[in-house]
Amino acid sequence: MTAHKIVIVGGGAGGLELATQLGESLGKSGKAQIVLVDQKLTHIWKPLLHEVAAGTLNPHEEETNYFAHSAAHHYEFVLGTFTGLDREAKQIVVETEYFSKKAQAKKNQRIDYDTLVLALGSTSNDFNTEGVKQFCHFLDSRPQADIFQQDLLHLYLNAQHEASSRELNIAIIGAGATGVELAAELVEAKHNFFKYGLNKVDPNKVKITLIEAADRILTALSPKVAEHTMQQLEKFGIEVLTSHRVAKVDEDKIYFADGSSLDAEIKVWAAGIKAPEVLAQLQDMEKDNIHRLKVYSTLQTKSDPDIFAFGDCAHCQPAADEPVLGPRAQVASQQANFLANALKARVNEENYLPMFKFSDKGSLISLSQNKAVGELLGQVNVQGFVAKSMYVSLYRIHQATIHGYAHAGILTAKDFVTRKISPKLKLH
Asked: Is 58 left (phi over 0), alpha (psi -120 to 50) or beta?
């Protein structure tokens, strides 16, 4: 009898945590074969991407290689992009593209599964706003964060060669967690650019604008947290425009629905999410209006009990009187822990699968080096260094989940030393 085969598609925060836990339990004991599929060779925790984009974090030091990780944690890794699903044959189609001097055709392979888990995350939703795709940066993936960092660096390098000092305008559309955190990181970056010799641009002449269509920032969090955050952003000199809906974007400007406009050399779109395009193309799967797969409280998709979905790509409403869970790392991590136990029950052929319940531990927003704001358990408001320490600990918990506590402790010590001796800004 062959072992039960669990295929997980997507190696983000949730997918990798699940693969690690299942590998250490079912994979190690031989009760199940665990396969993780991802289109990239390395993993980086998505909430760090705004730091990668601003250049305040060197991504090479925070990456986890899937092949090395899978060898250590008893699962198999397959490099490739998920492009299709054959539910009858219980197979997924994976396309692999190799970068090579010699032109090579894309390779398709089919992977069998007994249980399929989709953890594909989300991508930015531009709501078909004119010019956004062509002229805005997105921060959905590591390559996109790298491109932004390079464009920002080259903007400064070009300004350095000019005869006189000039203004730089950076605009971020969308004042959710990503937009706010990026704006704060860019304040840190502009002071470091000046400190490290790119001093033709006065930090006071670098204008960072945060744009939000709603009447306040951080609409997913409480008004109190939003208010504290606003105060901090004002201290940083960030201009915040609320109730400003973007109608159009071109190379030099952002145009608003009320007819006004804003100059911006670099524009970032961080407003709204949708499920990846591949899910929109899946036939006969029940989805919501942004193509997320609808799931029961067991996290099984409503269309197929052998297919599970969780994280940002799942439309999960644990109870009828509760809202649909939002796209948060906390949700994906709790669902990964839940599925690690639920799938063990499934492999052991238990009749009853548990129901997922979300426990909101609160929200934290990072505001550069030593600051953060947030609320814990819906009650306690935290600010400053304490909140920042808590924010950093979330990443350390993620590292402990995928590497074990001893390994995570060594990584923490390494990061502490590295940050003391390395430049505070990536200038390459």
From this structure: beta
Task: Name the token pair of 18.
Answer: 């699940």
Backbone angles phi, psi at 295, to 5 degrees: -125, 155
Asked, colleague to colleague, whether 4-122+275-358 and 126-271 share their fold, the answer is: yes
Question: In the structure encoding, which two tokens stand for residue 334, read together?
Answer: 């709790």
Domain 126-271 in CATH 3.10.450.50? The answer is no
pTM for this model (two decimals): 0.93
Q: 183-211: per-residue pLDDT in tens?
A: 999 999 999 999 998 888 889 999 999 99
The CA distance from 33 to 109, in Å, is 18
Q: What is the mean pLDDT of residues 138-143?
A: 94
H or E, element range at 111: strand 107-112
Residue 34 CB neighbours (<10 A):
30
How many Cα atoms are found within 13 Å in the side-chain-facing hemisphere of 170?
A: 28
Tokens of 121: 């995350």
Q: ∠ at Cα 181 (178, 184), nearest 5°?
A: 145
Percent of the chain scoring above 70 in pLDDT = 98
- pLDDT on residue 380: 66
293 strand-pairing partners: 287, 314
| Burial classification of residue 103, based on how many CB atoms lie within 10 Å of its CB (0-12 exposed, 13-18 middle, 19 or more buried) | exposed
Given the structure tokens 């109608």, which residue do they identify? Answer: 247
pLDDT score for 109: 94
Residue 119 CB contacts under 8 Å (≥ 6 apart), including other chains = 8, 9, 10, 11, 12, 14, 15, 18, 309, 310, 311, 313, 332, 336
Burial of 116 (0-12, 13-18, 19+ CB in 10 A): buried
Domain spanning 4-122+275-358: CATH 3.30.2160.10:
no
Q: 124: which 2 tokens?
A: 């930015």
Q: What is the pLDDT of residues 381-391, one digit of tens each?
A: 778 888 888 88
Query: Where do the domains of the chain lie?
Result: 4-122+275-358, 126-271
- DSSP characters over 5-69: EEEEE--SHHHHHHHHHHIIIIIHHTSEEEEEEESSSEE--GGGHHHHHHTSS-GGGT-EEHHHH
Residue 83: per-residue pLDDT: 96
Q: What is the DSSP letter of 160?
A: H
pLDDT band per the 50, 70, 90 thresholds, residue 77: very high
Nearest to 367, CA basis, from 192, 235, 255, 170? 235
